[in-house]
């Protein structure tokens, strides 16, 4: 479920790491400070980490370097293959945000970078409900993704992308399910989490949601 954008990633897998390095002008701002964004997630994570949408494994590798146990969930075979080709240990499993195998440990942290916007807001709610049942009090969800303060800010970025001739970015911003911060905050709060949001560039914010006692 929530896999409607999967074919995009099967095609993007080979060049994805060039994009995150800033080589695609349209996505330069989206991926500005990418290493710092992954580092922030790692620093906010506990020892037992469940990761969704691991892609080519950049966040996975950063977590493993800090000796954390990681259970990666990724629906695209091509992305998993790209991660393994880089020599990242095979901690990856087929699945998605809503349907995934049980990790062999109790996660204290659930992480994701640049992926949660593939779910509609209704699916996001279902996902957070599932995670609320997995995590104990004090457990955390740490997600980095494109999100906007409100609808007007979202529309302003679409208009800016169009004016710059960044048609692919404009279409992406208009069709995928980038949330507004208020909606996301409400979803987390309703499922028993306290949230903090940190802006990392013009598009990407980190949400840290801690399960209340
Ligand atoms: C933009 S990439 C991000 C990869 C990596 N997390 C990073 O930060 O570079 C988005 C990833 O989410 C995956 N994805 C797409 N739909 C998904 C879903 N419903 N559940 C989990 N992952 C999904 C894609 O296959 C892709 O690997």
UniProtKB/TrEMBL annotation:
Keyword S-adenosyl-L-methionine in record: yes
Alphabetized GO MF terms: S-adenosylmethionine-dependent methyltransferase activity
Record-listed E.C. numbers: 2.1.1.-
HAMAP family: Methyltr_YrrT (MF_02100)
Keywords, in A-Z order: Methyltransferase, S-adenosyl-L-methionine, Transferase
Ranges of residues in domain Methyltransferase: 49-139
SUPFAM superfamilies: S-adenosyl-L-methionine-dependent methyltransferases (SSF53335)
Protein residues bound to S-adenosyl-L-methionine: 53, 74, 96
Name the record gives this protein: Uncharacterized methyltransferase CEY02_11930
Organism the protein comes from: Bacillus pumilus (Bacillus mesentericus)
PANTHER family, per database record: TRANS-ACONITATE 2-METHYLTRANSFERASE-RELATED
InterPro entries: Methyltransf_25, SAM-dependent_MTases_sf, Uncharacterised_MeTfrase_YrrT
Membership in a protein family: Belongs to the methyltransferase superfamily. YrrT family.
Function: Could be a S-adenosyl-L-methionine-dependent methyltransferase.
GO biological-process terms attached to the record: methylation
The UniProt record lists the keyword Methyltransferase: yes
